[in-house]
Amino acid sequence: MNETAYTNRRTKLLEMITEGVIILSSAPTKTRSNDTEYSYRQNSDFYYLTGFEEPNSLLILSKTKESTRTILYVEPHSDEYALWNGAVLGVTNAQQQFLVDEVHNIIEYPNHIKEILRDHIHLYFDFLDDSHHLKVAQNSAKELRETRGVKLHVRTFGDATYLVRTLRLTKSHEEIEAIRQAIELTALAHHEAMRVCKPSMREYELQAAMSYIFGVNGVKSEAYGAIVAGGNNANTLHYVRNNDTLRDGDLVLIDAACEWELYASDITRTFPVNGKFTEAQREVYNAVLDVQLRVIEAIKPNVKRDWLQKYSEELLCQALIDLGILNGQCDALLEAKAHKKYAPHGIGHWMGLDVHDPCPYTDDKGESLCFTTGMVMTIEPGVYLRIDDESIPLKYRGIGIRIEDDILVTDEGCENLSSVIAKSVEDIEGMCRG
Ligand code: GLY
Ligand code: MN
Ligand code: MN
């Protein structure tokens, strides 16, 4: 992403408010145990507006009727820190690199904040931000209120994340390219898993085969904890133990994907451990695939996201009836939410800097948003048939299937960004044969 892209985002953000101060913090570091930390991942909203990946930094945007101001606070260079951890960018370099109005040492921030907040009415921040920096700002706002001679003071708190995430909803060309790159590497990893899988392997061996592909291709992080679930384990939606043995005749569901330049991909494929679907597996698989293809086909600008959810539930319910898993009229079963027992989760979610991109799903009136060009959403129907559920025909028990792709809304309709990943029964069996 070039620097102008970040400047444009900050400008757009400031256009969303009439006046006020917006404060966004970098992500905190987190202790893993004793004196070691989890690997650092920048806060997505902060990153979206700065492209800056260091901790202990702060972005402040302010706007009055007359002018705007953007300030970045960063960790200063320290020889001692550089010796142990490598150099930070520092104030001078940050000043050259970032197109903000001012860059300062983070140490200066408490001395500046009162002056920044003075004569502003609105203060926008992330309500979940529990950083010391934000407390300093809130305390300064309180002090200004009690200070004689201050005519205007902060009296309204606003949710900065809502504003930023509204912007994040529509992806730029560069963002889509990063997502494409994440998907390209994820495709390699899923195909590798299909090729190397064989009965008696452990689930974690498949996970390791995928992680290796990510690692040697320069991936810094996976987008979420991988799910590698053989047989009935696939019926635990958030199965992450990944330590069971993969059995001959079972399916394996893999929901795993990587991040590229902090942009996520999110892909699920379900395939036979021994490379060949049984008849019963094929029936359920094709039913789920048919739902997925029909839902994707329905995505285009002006379609409401809520409608798509409803449509996918109708398709899934009818598929469950056709398989003989549900009995009755589709409308009545939908009304009773009977399908939820076997298809409990939503059809998909926004995806971007976060795998579950926290962008709004509704407008200011609470109405479902319509798709517009540049939005990216996963489509991931699933059917989960527990091995111990005696209400399910015997041949289907223990089958859990999800198929997940990442879809970009375009002017013409949509593009499946992950269409190269083997998905039809024939393509999967072909890939499994190597
Ligand atoms: N991998 C998480 C999800 O599919 O939503
Ligand atoms: Mn997903
Ligand atoms: Mn997923």
Summed up:
This protein is 36% helix and 17% strand.
Fold and architecture overview:
It is a single chain. The protein contains 13 helices and 18 strands. The longest helix is centred in the middle third of the chain and has 24 residues, at 173-196. The protein has 434 residues and is α+β, with helices and mostly antiparallel strands. The mean pLDDT is 97. The chain binds glycine (GLY) and manganese (II) ion (2 copies). Residues 266, 349, 378, 380, 404 line the site of one manganese (II) ion. Residues 255, 266, 268, 404 line the site of one manganese (II) ion.
List keywords for this structure.
434 residues; alpha+beta; globular; binds glycine; 2 domains; Creatine Amidinohydrolase, Chain A, domain 1; three-stranded antiparallel beta sheet; binds manganese (II) ion; six-stranded mixed beta sheet; 17% strand; Creatine Amidinohydrolase
How are the strands of the largest sheet arranged? 6-5-4-1-7-8
Low-pLDDT runs: none
Kindly state the mean pLDDT as a whole number?
97
The total count of strands amounts to: 18
Can you identify the CATH superfamily of the largest domain? Answer: Creatinase/methionine aminopeptidase superfamily
* C-alpha end-to-end distance: 37 Å
Give me the secondary-structure category. alpha+beta
Enumerate how many helices there are, as a single number. Answer: 13
Any idea what the radius of gyration is? 25 Å
Fraction of helical residues: 25-40%
Tertiary shape: globular
The main pleated sheet reads as: 6 strands, mixed
Ligand kinds: glycine, manganese (II) ion
CATH architecture of the largest domain: Alpha-Beta Complex
How much of the sequence lies in strands comes to: 15-25%
Count up the domains. 2
Highest CATH level, the class of the largest domain: Alpha Beta
- Fill in the CATH topology of the largest domain: Creatine Amidinohydrolase
